[in-house]
Amino acid sequence: MSEPLLRAEGLTRHFAVGKLLSRQRLHAVDDVSFEIGRGEIVALVGESGSGKSTIARLLARVYKPTAGEIYFDGRPVSSLRTRRQRLGYSSDVAMVFQDPYSSINPAYRVTHPIERGIVLHRRELARRRRRDEVERSLGEVGLVPAGRVAGKFPHELSGGQRQRVGFAAALAVKPKLIVADEPVSMLDVSIRIGVLNLMSEVREREGVSFLYVTHDVASARYVADRVLVLYAGHLVEEGPIEEVIRRPKHPYTQLLLSAVPDPRAELGVSDAADVGEPPKVIDPQPGCRFRARCPFAIADCETVTPPLRPIGPERFVACHVAVADAEDAALERV
Amino acid sequence: MSLPTVADPLEPAGATVGSGPPEAATRRSVGGDLFRSVLRNKKALVGLGLLLFFVVLAAIPGQIAPDNPRAKVYPPGLGPSSHHLFGTTAYGEDVFSQLVFGTRQSLLIALLVGGLATVIAVVVGVSAGYLGGTTDGILSLITDVILVIPIFPLIIVIAAYERNSGFLTLVVVLGLLGWSYGARQLRSQTLSLRTRDFLEAARVRGERKTYVIVHEILPTMTSLILASFLGAALYAVLFAAGLQFIGLGDPNSQSWGTMLYWAENNEALGAGMPYWAIMPGVCVALLGAAFALMNYAFDEISSPALRLRKLERQGVDADGADIVPARPPDGKNILEVRNLSVAYASEHGPVVAVDDVSFELAKGEFLGVVGESACGKSTLVYAIARLLGAPLAGEITNGQVLFKGQDMVTLSDKQLRLIRWRDYSVVMQSAMNALNPVLTIGAQMRDACEAHSTMSKRQMESRSKEVLRLVSIDPVHLLSYPHQLSGGMRQRAMIAMALLFTPELIVMDEPTSALDVVGQRSLMVQIKELQEQLGFAVVFVTHDMSLVRHFSDRVLVMYAAQVAELGRTRQLFGKPLHPYTQGLLDAYPSIHGAKEQLLGIPGSPPDLLRPPSGCRFAPRCPHVFARCHDEQPRLLEVDGELVRCFLHEQAAEQVEARKEGVA
Fold it and tell me: Quick check: helix, strand or coil at residue A8?
């Protein structure tokens, strides 16, 4: 098999918390491995506090991993030493942020981040051509007339338009991967679809891969090919998104699916108030981290961390209780 | 203080690309904004004028002063005359000429010290705030030490040691001691910027640290840096004069402070030369006032809440008021909103954010108010709760809000306090902002109880525990601070506080929008359970139709400040009448059935400063026809629902015909 665009192996990130004398370690991400293919949109799904934004920032090199390695185009990211190498990585992996109201500097026109990206990463472009290139990027994300938008300050654009500027800035550096950290969660429902459609279009047109970080499985299904489900820093389920939605194996995935907002659907039976939340994982003991909220927990879940194991073609789940489809069928026959 | 922001609470309203006010497209760079605001601010103008006056004196003293200030050629101790405006000194020099020539040094000291202190403040403050960690620790310690040093005695000691070393020493000493206040402000501003995504975006882009500091952080702090400069300049003027007055510094230099020194030495006041002593003081005060006035002015300019004009009630007229299906108050309704209009003042004129909205709410009813951002739905509920004070600066320009038969619009603040929280309460969008970060949940509940009731300590405690249990929070969290709770728990704590006095109406403004889907769903289920259990009525504002689908009795859809549709939930979701309602419903990707391509609602809500002349939804409507652009549709009654759309005119006419037939 050819090398995927990005491969994370045993990715781990801990943060020191607490006072100087009672130093504890918050396990934001623990031993997570996954791949992102070329031109693939992978959704990373989980609740607040599950560690999904930490993974996004690990990929964007905002954080350094505590352990594990990210391979980009087969090269380990930790081996980037010189400024030139690191700049190369910044141009390969761009990021779009969650909050369109704080991701553009209010002191500049909205074209500032786009221009800077071009100045840093496409030095061959003559100064005169930069202006055209900026307008071209704005047009590419549907901000037209580009010449007019280019003269605006951030507060003159709506949230949806600012988020498009974010995508334009990411695209301007000609990246191979865009890490989009909850790009629509702060937008009105009515304009979310527009931004999601933009992601699909960009993938079609430029062949860019996406890591789409979200808590909304329905929007993940709308744009993504594959899904990674994260709970309390552990990867708990992985597979093609249609498969996972049709036959969710992990009890947590099932919970996430039951909470999907859909004004046309009737209220599900499983909608009894689940007031649990992902735990803050501080100096953890082994065991499944979902067990406190899990309706199917067994004794093993208290003591043994379930490993991510294959349960079908491209399907993985980290659960002692979940069984593969074939076994499902067998159980039904009994 | 922060960078000048636009005081438009409907911020995205003016954001539609291509449809904003034409002048807004070209004006408004941050610098240009500042300049314009300065011209409009009286304090800034007076301050600037004074400063300019002194700059002219300092630049060309020879042309203005009648004499050489050092020429001891006149009779000493003359009183004021046409030849000697402020008389002469004990040495026979012209006082007026000395004042004019002294300007240069005083002004130079102010500007140089201001500049030096500001440079140090910026370097120290921004580095400390941005780099954090040990650097921050060390720099903050130095800043604090300098801040608490009793500066005047220290300067006296230094100046006495460096006696007669003159002008430059004075500048350096004052500069080195005058930066700490500005540095602290700049540090905290930088700290607050550090979590902003645009700085992280710059790092991800591959920018160097120096670029981030110089080009991303500094430009957002221009007004703060300016304030820091003006503050330091003011301090320099006063301190320099003070030092020279007590004889520290070069007594032979030409400045206001040395004039004071010599005047004092010759007991000018007692010896009939009052102007020799008074006028330098007046000049020091005037130059100081110039800096202080400009500083105040920038404060005002950068916090826009201070400068918004009040709206005239008659400034906005509610013409074309809709006819509301007349239903007399029968005691069943807890809330009746009649022809309510709310407007905000903006630089371009009043912005009508709620335009003639009417509805009623029965006891125990759950009303969902939905619409996009900037459609006026938050303004509507703030107006109902009478929370439109500063910084929102909105005003009710027309209509009534009858709460239990009482018109809330005319209630005084004192009367409002009596019923707010007891009879109705409000749950805000962001619990983190609404809760006080330095008080425990329990303390905040106690405050609320003390302010609104005469409960005993024991009663307060047991009631607080009770309401926390109601929202599934363990009462141990009475001792927790807001930041120790998760987002979902904070929102539930807010709801618990709203329940303290079992009010009859709770107004909720997007209480779940900061939560993710799982938290949202569980909070909604809980609100609904509480409502059924306790029987209060709810006005629930959201942009997310899916939230009200299962929980509200009726839904009010707002678009561009007006009611677009109002109907029973089941009917409205089953057969939406307004194309906007349909659009909101079609915006959800589903996890059921085949994957469909969705479009959402293209475009954004109109600028409420200049709403479209016809139907306000026309520019985005898939069913638009010619008439929609020319004529504003009225609110029609169709199948017991209200809808503002020409598509339903025929059906509405039939309804009316039937009514008339019955009559």
Answer: strand
